[in-house]
Amino acid sequence: MLKDRSGTGKAQKAGWLAALLSVVATLILGIAYLLGGEAEDTGEYAPVAPVVEKQAVSGGKAEAILVFFTDPQYPDDPADHQGGLDEALAADIALARSSVDVAAYDFDLQSVADALLEAHRNGVQVRLVTDSDNVEEPVVRQLQSAGLGVVEDGRDALMHDKFVVIDERVVWTGSWNLTEGGTYRNNNNAVRIDSELLAENYTAEFEEMFESREFGPGSTAGMPHQQVLLSDGAGDEGVWIESYFAPEDRVGEKLLALVEGAQKSIRFMAFSFTDDGLGEAMVSQYEAGLTVQGVFEGRGADAVYSEFGRMIAVEPRMDVRLDGNPYMMHHKVIIVDDEMVILGSFNFSESADTMNDENVLFIHDRGIASLFRAEFRRIYREGSEGPQ
To answer: If DSSP codes are grouped into helix, strand and coil, which group holds residue 197?
Structure first.
C-alpha cells in the first residue's frame, strides 16, 4: 500500500534505512533522481530499487529527505491494512535511542502505539501531544496507562499538528494523521527529513506545547532555524527548507506572497480551501496567464465558503476538479513554478492561520517538486470537474 516516491541518494545509510525499508521493500514504487536533478515527467510511475532517498550532507552530517504518498484502495478491506506508512514509522521508532516526541491531532494506529510502548520499555523518553477531541482514543489511553507523558490542548480550536521527532534528529511530517483511515483510506503525504537543525525547530515547538502548555495564539513566535539548507557538500545549491508554525509565524501571509510571486504555474491539492485572499490571488494569477490547476476534496467543496465555487465561476473556467477518492483526499499541498512545494498540516483557512496549532514546510527543490507534481497528476486524473 505504501508508495515511496523520493530521490535516490548517493550513498545508502545501512542502519536505519535497512530496517525501515525492510518493512516495505517489496511494495515500494517511486521515481529516483540525484541531488540537483529532476524526475522525468512522464505521467507514469516506474518501480525503482528499495533504497530510494534524497541524500544530502550539511555540516559534515549525512541528511536525507524521503517522500511518501498513501495508496488508498476502494472498496477498503481491513485485511489489506499492511505495508503502509504506519509500519514505516513504527520501524523508525524502533531505532530510537533517546527520545520520540509525537504531536498528533488524531491517533488510533495500534502498530505505532506498540512501537512507542516498546521504545518506552527500552528506556527511550516518549511523549505525546494531542487534541482534546481525540484524547479518549484507546491507544492514547493505553499510552497514558503505561506511564508515557500525554498532554492535550484543552481548547475549542484544534491542536492540528502532525509531526514526529526521533532522537532530536529525524522529523516526520505532512498531511498524514496517525490513523487507520489516514493511512489506508485517504490520500496523504509524508516526508521524513534527517536534519538536526530542522528537528531543533520541531522540538522547540513541541516543548512549547508539552512543557509550557502554549497553544494557538498563545504560542511563542520564532524558531531557531526558520531556513535550513541541505547541501550535498560539492558546491551545489542544495535544498532550502523553510519551517513555520501557525498561528505565530503568520503562515497565511507567506503563502499569499508565494502565490502572488509565482511566475509560471500554481498547482494545489486541498482538503479544505476557504481562504478568500489566497483564492483571489490564484484567480488573479490565472487571469494573468499563469497555469493554475487544483483538486479539492469533494466533501465541503459545495459549501458557500469554499473557493471551489469562486474558481469554477471564472470565465473561462479555471482548471479545478473534485477529487475521486470515495473516502477522503486529505492533501494540503501547493506546488509553485514546479520548483517548490508547500506541505504540512495547514489547511488553507482562516482557522488554520489564526487559531489552530499547525506546522508547515516550504521545500525549494525541483526534484521534490516533481514528486508532488506526479502525485498531483494522479489525483487530478482520478477527479471530476463537478458542476458544469
So the answer is: helix
Q: Are 126 and 116 in contact (CB under 8 A)?
A: yes
Least trusted range by pLDDT, from 9-13, 184-188, 191-195: 9-13
What percentage of residues in the chain have a pLDDT greater than 70? 82
- Are the CB atoms for 331 and 342 separated by under 8 Å? no
**Long-range contacts (CB closer than 8 Å, 24 or more residues apart) made by 177-181:** 177/104, 177/105, 177/106, 177/107, 177/330, 178/86, 178/89, 178/102, 178/104, 178/106, 178/107, 178/108, 178/109, 178/112, 179/106, 179/107, 179/108, 179/109, 180/78, 180/81, 180/108, 180/109, 181/327, 181/328
Backbone angles phi, psi at 368, to 5 degrees: -60, -40
Helix (H, G, I), strand (E, B) or coil at 366: helix
Cell of 43: 505521467
CA contacts within 13 A on the Cβ side of 295: 23
CA distance 126 to 143: 9
Q: What is the pLDDT of residue 236?
A: 58
Count of other CB atoms within 10 angstroms of residue 22: 12
The answer to whether 269 and 295 are in contact (CB under 8 A) is: yes
Asked if pLDDT for residue 385 goes beyond 90, the answer is no
Is 0.85 topped by the overall pTM?
Answer: yes
155 vs 49: which has the higher pLDDT: 155
Q: In 3D, which of 35, 1, 23 has the Cα closest to residue 229?
A: 35
pLDDT for 345-355, tens place per residue?
999 999 999 99
Apex 94 CA angle, 205 and 331, nearest 5: 50
Residue of 281 and 45 predicted with greater confidence: 281
**Residue 139: phi, psi to the nearest 5?**
-70, -30
CA–CA distances in Å: residue 239 to residues 30, 169, 367, 368: 20, 17, 10, 9
